[in-house]
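User: Can you predict the 3D structure for this chain?
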Amino acid sequence: MKVRRVFKHGQFCFNMHEVFLTKVLAGERIGLLPIDDRYLRIYLAWHPIATLDTKTMQVEKLHNEDLASDQQGYGNEEIPQKRDFHLPTTPATTTRM
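Assistant: Here is the predicted structure, written as structure tokens:
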């Protein structure tokens, strides 16, 4: 995944082109993950927010099938209900002989 910073006017640089995304994300970092040879999915944290067409350098909305396929990969891990470890709450004391 490539990471880019969104400039104050809402654009980011990719392959020596300035691509407009949104002013709302000014100062934030976004991730660019290849979908295929032409398209990249744009992420904010782990949330997909748009698609970049590298041929036209235009940002496109996500389609419903893009959202459905992406939800299968993130956030589906189960949180264990029982902890199998114990963290000491008091410092261990050492004895010298």
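The chain has one domain: 2-71. Residues 50 and 62 are 5 Å apart (CA to CA).
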